[in-house]
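Q: My labmate handed me this sequence with no annotations at all. I'd like to see what the chain might look like in three dimensions before we decide whether it's worth expressing. Could you predict it?
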Amino acid sequence: MGLRFEELAWRETPIGAISLRRRRDPALDVDVYEVKLDDEFLMSSLFPVAEIELARLGLAPLTGDDLDVVVGGLGLGYTARTALEDARVGSLVVVEAIEDVIDWHRRQLLPFAAGLAADPRTRFVRADFFAAVAAGDLDPERPDRRFHAVLLDVDHSPRNVLHPSHAPFYTPDGLRRLAGLLHPEGVFALWSDDPPDADFGAALAEVFPTSEAHVVRFANPFTGGESANTVYVAHR
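A: Here is what I predict for the chain of 236 residues:
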């Protein structure tokens, strides 16, 4: 059993103070890892289901092997780790704006993400995902590179963004720039904390021939009931 509460990392960043903490939940008898931005909770190891499904649903439409995949937003590592569990994935580029988050994984502070940083298929890119898409360059080492899948989990939802500069990405013009970084049969998948959004669905439909909003439900131990996130999957 660990300490009842421990702050594992803290750093002031341009978008606020980001911290990683571990606390013991006596009711559930588990260690809970949480990420906060200032006083706002970003993610918790108690609720990994939708982050895992982001990778599974995003990779499911693809065929073939040696897939090149991008994960936008590293966080606790569930999406990236799940992507690596797919034997078809040949390379994984993780685009993360905050160096400290990358460092959490290199220092192996998150036991459930063990092996992510050490996997030879993984490469971390310290960059603003949204600025990189706008510049058409998700991989600085190969500026002309195209990908089979881009899996994004940064903002709370297309309407509830962490920074105003992210908002243009969720428009048809922003999504077209993203689609231009995909192979002809590529997939874009997005995690959202909100229910399916008709306006964002319409924006996806302007750019991608097919798209679907999957409602991912999971048990919520705090409420004793059920909660839900949304995973959008759009296919070129």
